[in-house]
Amino acid sequence: MGVVQAVKSLFSNHVETSDHHSDPTLKTHYYKTTAGNAFKQVHEMLKHMQGIEILAAYEERGEISLNVVKGRKAFVVITIINVRPLETAIDFSATTESKVVPFDFGFSKELVRTLYKTFDQKLIPLSS
């Protein structure tokens, strides 16, 4: 990621992961499991994490939406998609709420990185 992109990401309040993200830490993570199993495990992990309130969970759509309150408040949508048998992708869309300034100084990006690290410990990551 270039310097301009790094500075730009600090002055944003939203981050999304994708297969072709310029920041390697925000690329889609793939796991060796079914979407149903990943959904159940992710949902269970989130239920036990402090500062996280699950708003909705739709296994048939592979979506979990949540509020995160860890110093700041963020709204996160987690998408869990079966790509192939025993290959499941997990992506994020995270937006930090702010009443004073329209950016979060990288909070949403760090939140996604932390969630990926947690998922990587419980699910079997596939190398990209």
Give the structure's gist in a few sentences:
This protein has three helices and seven strands.
Describe what this molecule looks like in 3D.
This protein is of the alpha+beta class and 128 residues long. Helices cover 29% and strands 37% of the residues. It is built from three helices and seven strands. It has helices spanning 3-10, 35-47, 107-122, and strands spanning 14-16, 29-31, 52-58, 63-70, 72-84, 87-97, 125-126.
Number of helices: 3
Shape: globular
Largest sheet composition: 7 strands, antiparallel
Strands, count: 7
Write the layout of secondary structure elements.
Elements (H helix, E strand, L loop, with lengths): L2 H8 L3 E3 L12 E3 L3 H13 L4 E7 L4 E8 L1 E13 L2 E11 L9 H16 L2 E2 L2
Keywords:
alpha+beta, single chain
